[in-house]
Amino acid sequence: MTHALARASDDDAAVDQAVLRLTAEFRTRLRPQVIGTVVRNSRRDLSGVPATALPELVERLARARLQSEDRSA
């Protein structure tokens, strides 16, 4: 497995874990599809972030966006 492929797999796992945690946190207020979309968009928006910081930053950004979405709903 190449380094780029390994990183992509790690990123996918981090995104999947963030979706699971945030779905548990927001499940009574937002649909799972919305949560997944917000997490994936957050990941895309953080594409230039160092790999070691990515999992935490994706989850933080997605949580902030979900809280904003929840308030406006």
TrEMBL record:
UniProt superkingdom? Bacteria
Question: By its UniProt entry, which Gene3D superfamilies does this protein fall under?
Answer: Corynebacterium glutamicum thioredoxin-dependent arsenate reductase, N-terminal domain (1.10.8.1060)
What is the protein name stated in its UniProt record?
A: Uncharacterized protein
